[in-house]
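ok trying this again, last paste got cut off
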Amino acid sequence: MRNSAIYLQTQTSPEDQAATRCSFASGIDASSWLSWTIYLGTFWVALFLNPTAGLALRDGNGTAMALIVSIAFFFGSVLALQHHMQLSLTASSFGRPRSLTTSGVFRWSRNPIYVAFFIPLGALALLSPVASLIGLIAYVHVMTSYVIKAEERDLAAKFGADYAAYKARVPRWLAGL
């Protein structure tokens, strides 16, 4: 399964959609499943490492609201980035690339939507800094290994020298990662 929405605009046939979508949740791509699975796993690790975290959520001390706001901010970021890429949440993120997006925040990161997911994962530090760090490390590793490298191969094949030049000047995640 290859998700190319982060980097490019796409054209999709029904056959491409059927072949690349998660069969148990039509319309939700593998990168979303991986991201939210890691988030939920990190949340549970945070509760395990910090047994009083559940009380903080229940007692309404602002921790639960901060987590909700971080998730809302993430979705707002995704909408803004997709608008910049001329996509929508209902657009399929699979298919053949039409254009390489290198402007806006794509000048600083080749994966700004994936970077935006650092916000809700980082907010879990309110419950457990250790769990949040574990989640961030797991997220970067899983997304790089199972999603981004495949996307990069597709982009290199489609855009050749243009993508190679973009890849040489813009970091995969952020400078230093």
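PB: full thing came through this time. Residues 129-169 form the longest helix (41 residues).
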